[in-house]
UniProtKB/TrEMBL annotation:
Sequence ranges assigned to domain Thioredoxin in this UniProt record: 56-182
Protein name listed in UniProt: Thioredoxin family protein
Cited PANTHER family: THIOL:DISULFIDE INTERCHANGE PROTEIN DSBD
Organism (species): Aporhodopirellula aestuarii
Domain of life: Bacteria
Amino acid sequence: MNEERRVALATIKEVQRGVDLANRVPRFRAITVLAMVAVSSGVFCIGTSHCAETKPLLSTSGVSADADTSEVKWLTDFEQAIVKAKRLERPLLIDFAASWCVPCRIMDKKVWPDASVQKALENEVVPLRVDMDGKHAPPLIEKFKVEFVPTILIVDQNENELAREGFVNAEEFLEMTRKLRKE
């Protein structure tokens, strides 16, 4: 267990320094639970004498405090988003995220700001972000059977699921949208 804690602490420090962990997803997923506990508590300890403070990964709005996601025009109301998707005749992209989710933080920092991803979000889908801890989240979590975060879900205007993924890098996200164009 001490080795897992050491890896989790190192991973948290790398995330805080902005290191791209997208290429280490299998190892990263293995310690995500430990990292989530560490981040939510604000202090991560190995044993009794080696503690490190962690800074908050997401602001209270559910968006990373230091990520450049200002270009993403996330809607936060499902009903409003589905109406817009119908009006624009586009699929609805739902990003289920949480303030304590380390992979969500990585996506905020490395995926959503990517220029190609920004273009896809602006021109191909209607982006909706659901804060898993928000008061409006439980019905959507149940409706779409969300079991983990992040969950990236794409639905059509009739709310039929078209695609579902967890953590993705920019290229994997763009592949999701390419598949939508082919259908």
